[in-house]
Every structure is written in structure tokens, then in C-alpha cells.
Amino acid sequence: MARERSETYSQFKILLDLGIEHGPHAGFKKFSHIDKLTGLNKATDVTLKRGVISSSALEDWLNQIRKSSLHAQRTVKVALQDERHRIIRTWTLLGAVIIKHVGPPLNAKGTDVAIEELVLHCERIEVKSGNAETC
Fold it and tell me: Mind listing the domains of the chain with CATH numbers?
């Protein structure tokens, strides 16, 4: 993980790695997930709220989804940090795709984009406790 990028999101306890090079790509203040039973399969939606995300990473993924949603699935990681910025739990979202994003008005002060809500749908979630993995 690039040092300058992790410092960009240092004020956030929840980090998001979009499954492409050099994460994390976002920092959020709230994270939740809901398991839905659809027939015999369990699908999951993950909601991240009040954060900052790299605009190019988000736009690239949204463009990929618009062109071909089948090839836009990614393995995404969400990491929860403690007060010392040590990762204490990670959620690996398998087969994730963006289904909703809500952002406030754009601000010309930087290259990152504030985002109110990002909802990802994924096929499965793997949870790990401890700081064995990084985001």
C-alpha cells in the first residue's frame, strides 16, 4: 500500500480497497451489510457511508459496469482500523459490483470525491479478525 494514499484516508476507521493496484482507494465512517435470502442462494449488499473515494477508481469501475456488468465483478476488501490504524477486521467481498452511489456536490479542492453512500452487491463475504491482512 502506498504510504501517501493511506495517509489520505487516515481520518477514517473504515478503508476500502477496490481490488485494483495500490489500495486503499477510499475511507468511510460507516459500514453495514445485509444478507438476503433469494431462493436457495444468499446474496449480500454492503453499504458504506460518509467517505472520500479516489475519483478515478470509482469512475473506472462505474464505466466498466456500464459496459458489461458480468465482467465488472471484483474482489473488494473492507478493513476496520483501531485508534492506532491497525487493521482489526477485514471483510473480503467476492463478486462485488456497485449497485448504488450517492455523492454530495463536487468540490474543486482536491482529486478525491466525497461520497455520501456506496452500496455494493456481492456474492459472498469472508470475514477475518486480527491484523494479518492489509487493505
Answer: 3-129 (2.30.110.20)
Q: How far apart are CA 126 and CA 100, in angstroms?
A: 22
Provide the terminal-to-terminal Cα distance of the chain, rounded to the nearest Å. Answer: 8
Q: What are phi and psi of 108, to 5 degrees?
A: -85, 10
Distance CA 103, CA 116 (A): 5
C-alpha pair distances (Å), 58 with each of 19, 36, 84, 121: 11, 25, 27, 15
**Residues linked to residue 74 through DSSP beta bridges, in sequence order:** 96
Contact 121, 45 (CB under 8 A): yes
DSSP string, 75-109: EEEEEEE-TTS-EEEEEEEEEEEEEEEE--S--TT
β-bridge mates for residue 45, sequence order:
34, 121
pTM flag (> 0.85): no
The 10s digit of each residue's pLDDT in 16-69 is: 999 887 789 999 999 998 777 666 666 789 999 999 887 788 888 988 888 876
